[in-house]
Amino acid sequence: MAATPLTDAELDRALTGLPGWSVRDGKLTATFTADRSAVPALYAAIARAEDEANHHAEVTILYGTVGFALSTHDAGDAITALDTAMAARLSALAAEHGARPAGE
Questions:
Q1: Could you give the CA distance from residue 18 to residue 74 in angstroms, rounded to a whole number?
Q2: At 69, which helix (H) or strand (E)?
Q3: Using an 8 Å Cβ cutoff, are 80 and 53 in contact?
Q4: Spatial CA neighbour of 29 closest among 63, 75, 65
Q5: Global pTM?
Q6: Mind giving me the DSSP string for 6-57?
Q7: Which of 37, 40, 68, 96 could crosslink 57 through cysteines, CB 3.0-4.6 Å?
Q8: Nearest to 79 by CA among 30, 26, 29
Q9: Buried b / exposed e along 37-72 (16+ C-beta atoms within 10 A)
């Protein structure tokens, strides 16, 4: 996938398939809640997926929440298809580990 910023329309379309994700401060963000005991295994899976994709999120862990912020440095810290693809992967990993989008 190219590191080209998404247009507003492309980003809006991508967000329809990414429950719990939104744009905040120019980054694609989401927060998931999980049982605290599931968080270490979830983070290990996230780290593997990020390394495989060579694309890394800003990850924040606090108690039973895991927060993500994604943007592409090579595209001037804009949101690209790399970010939406990683968001989908992170959502799938979160679900596999029993985490849900915050507020759900």
A1: 23
A2: strand 65-70
A3: no
A4: 65
A5: 0.94
A6: PPHHHHHHHHHTSTT-EEETTEEEEEEE--GGGHHHHHHHHHHHHHHHT---
A7: 68
A8: 26
A9: ebbeebeebbeebbeeeebebebeeeeeebebbbbb
